[in-house]
């Protein structure tokens, strides 16, 4: 986590026009699908903590631009098996990674709170965008596979832009694509440092989606929710957002017949 100073929590005056969201472990349960991929690879997921930490280390190198995504995947898989004393070639690692990746992709699922939240925000007149640190084709496939193609006004993917969160340039590019000033935009993500604090440092409203609820208070400068079901209340009650449509169907309630389904949106 960063130790850099952050702006005060008091929002600047003005209406919230847009909400940006991270994808992995924010909208999509990436940890669950990755765990299933590991189980397909080795027959169980007992080594999940080792896989997760190995992935964290190698993914950092990808985000920093030190290796490409395919190389990262091969090196990560080699390092994982090496941790258990098995040395494998690049070709063998690539083959095992292909198998694991296919199993993981078949298990891609949105969190249950994702679609109701997206539909509420869209019905309330907010623009929506994603800001994600990953390769372009990989993330676009993920978005399409989970029925979110067409759900967003813009998609800011680090693999396309050449800059990654928490670099303020990717947050500012999102604002520009939405024709909104940073203080008119909220960004929500599961990473306190990369998402919430990065967004706050760029002048947006940073919201930390702390699904595990492991800490009770967010640091100065960011808001915290433990579920996307809490986001509408945060936007209306704590941030300067007034829905165009009265909040007549909170997430979890039956949707009215006129509600546009995100999966049916085309833009
Ligand atoms: Mg994430």
Order of helices and strands: EHHHHHEHEHHEHEEH
SS-based class: alpha/beta
Residues in β-strands, percent = 5-15%
What radius of gyration results from the CA coordinates? 19 Å
* Tally of helical runs: 10
Bound molecules: magnesium ion
Number of domains: 2
Give the number of DSSP strands: 6
CATH topology of the largest domain: Rossmann fold
Shape verdict: elongated
Q: Helical amount among residues, as a percent range? A: 40-55%
Please state the second-level CATH architecture of the largest domain.
3-Layer(aba) Sandwich
CATH superfamily of the largest domain: HAD superfamily/HAD-like
Q: Which strand order spans the largest sheet, edge to edge or round the barrel?
A: 3-2-1-4-5-6
Keywords: Hydrolase, Magnesium
Organism: Saccharopolyspora gloriosae
Cofactor: Mg(2+)
GO biological process, one term: small molecule metabolic process
